[in-house]
């Protein structure tokens, strides 16, 4: 039989130690966030529904987004054992410069809508951790303001070629003058995708105080307080910002964009040129023939054409077709550090991360973005060690395979 006794106070004392109190509410909120999914749950609670859905949602039935995520769920690593992985190197050369992690922050529109700190916070985290940051044409902070907020960051600029080419030319020149070294031309937006969550939520920029948003705002007073007491929310590169998201997108995007425009941009931009939104091998070859230094295999986070190709599945054939002529980057559906490593093992130079850091931004501003990077970096290190690989550069196709559907 088990003999029981009363524990001595000295034995209870180590078990009853309260966790240290964290005064900062943002830090407290992030303490239990162990994954990007955790940050997503916090973001959903912290922001109005229309704002969260803008970040979280995709086009039509959202099949493109879910298929992209499902592809990463099908990744199977082939680890080797008895390797010395006591030290790991997570750095990666991307477009001629070393990044401390094998990914960059992707361009995202309306970033100050997610949190009033917006692009400045994200760029400063990129500077801190040593990865590139990409400012969007649809950003809510100017080219020059981002440069001032993160003067030592590696800064890229994402461009939509406007119907008015003079405006695009001015943006390109401003980016060059402000020290941005890479230009990403997005080519998968002849028109805006059917983002049904935004339509159903009646999302406008700036958000309108309808009865529905007023009621939702009562549940998120901190967000509305920050919106109303900081600089007005606007598109920093657009003269007119009234109306729905679809209205603004279709005023800016140009359905007449062709390869001639890629040729023109190559002549106008002296830095690295990346074409973002490539969705088949033939187009990747065409844009590299026109002078692109890299392509981003992307379906725009599933936010344009639903039922679009899955970017991860395009990596191997695109790398084989391009060889050493250009670098291949990939985005869409990346929620874990292992996702990034899978893409690199299949041949990608690196990845672009979008939603993952926006969930962090919505959850706790700059601290949340830091947390997102910490989570992803930890997953990258741990996955490398468990695969039996000492550095990102050692990854090869034999380290990974995609399990069949079903």
Query: Which fold name is given in CATH as the topology?
Result: TIM Barrel
- Count of helical segments? 18
Question: What overall form do the CA principal axes indicate?
Answer: globular
Indicate the percent of residues in helices: 40-55%
The share of residues in extended strands comes to 5-15%
Query: In which order are the strands of the major sheet placed?
Result: 4-11-10-9-8-7-6-5
What structural category characterises the helix and strand content?
A: alpha/beta
Question: How many separate domains make up the residues?
Answer: 1
CATH homology group: Aldolase class I
Low-confidence stretches: none
* Rg on CA atoms, Å: 22 Å
Distance separating the two termini: 52 Å
Q: Given this structure, which CATH class is correct?
A: Alpha Beta
CATH architectural grouping: Alpha-Beta Barrel
Domain FMN hydroxy acid dehydrogenase: 28-405
Pfam families: FMN_dh
Protein name: Alpha-hydroxy acid oxidase
Cofactor: FMN
């Amino acid at each position: 039989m088990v003999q029981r006794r009363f524990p001595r106070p000295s034995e209870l004392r180590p078990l009853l130690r309260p966790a240290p109190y964290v005064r900062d509410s943002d830090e407290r909120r992030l303490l239990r966030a162990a994954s990007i999914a955790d940050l997503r749950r916090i973001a959903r609670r912290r922001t109005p529904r229309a704002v969260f859905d803008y970040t979280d949602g995709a086009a039509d039935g959202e099949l493109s987004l879910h298929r992209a995520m499902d592809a990463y769920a099908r990744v199977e690593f082939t680890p080797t054992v008895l390797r010395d992985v006591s030290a790991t190197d997570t750095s990666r050369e991307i477009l001629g410069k070393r990044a401390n992690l094998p990914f960059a922050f992707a361009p995202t529109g309306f970033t100050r809508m997610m949190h009033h700190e917006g692009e400045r916070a994200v760029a400063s985290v990129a500077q801190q951790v040593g990865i590139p940051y990409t400012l969007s044409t649809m950003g809510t902070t100017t080219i020059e303001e981002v440069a001032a907020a993160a003067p030592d960051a590696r800064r890229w600029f994402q461009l939509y070629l406007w119907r008015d080419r003079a405006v695009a030319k001015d943006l390109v020149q401003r980016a060059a003058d402000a020290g941005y070294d890479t230009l990403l031309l997005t080519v998968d937006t002849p028109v805006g995708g059917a983002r049904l969550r935004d339509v159903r939520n009646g999302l406008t920029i700036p958000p309108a105080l309808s009865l529905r948003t007023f009621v939702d705002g009562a549940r998120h007073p901190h967000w509305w307080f920050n919106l109303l007491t900081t600089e007005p929310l606007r598109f920093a590169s657009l003269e007119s910002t009234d109306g729905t998201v679809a209205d603004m997108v279709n005023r800016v995007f140009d359905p007449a964009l062709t390869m001639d425009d890629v040729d023109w941009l190559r002549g106008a931009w002296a830095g690295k040129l990346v074409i973002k939104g490539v969705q088949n091998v033939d187009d990747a070859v065409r844009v590299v023939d026109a002078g692109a230094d890299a392509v981003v295999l992307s379906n725009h986070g599933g936010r344009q054409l639903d039922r679009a190709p899955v970017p991860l599945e395009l990596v191997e054939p695109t790398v084989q077709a391009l060889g050493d002529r250009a670098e291949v980057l990939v985005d869409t559906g990346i929620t874990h550090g292992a996702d990034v490593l899978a893409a690199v093992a299949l041949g990608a130079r690196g990845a672009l991360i979008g939603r993952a850091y926006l969930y962090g931004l919505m959850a706790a501003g700059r601290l949340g973005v830091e947390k997102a990077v910490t989570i992803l970096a930890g997953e990258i290190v741990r996955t490398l060690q468990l695969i039996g690989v000492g550095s990102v550069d050692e990854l090869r196709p034999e380290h990974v395979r995609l399990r069949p559907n079903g």
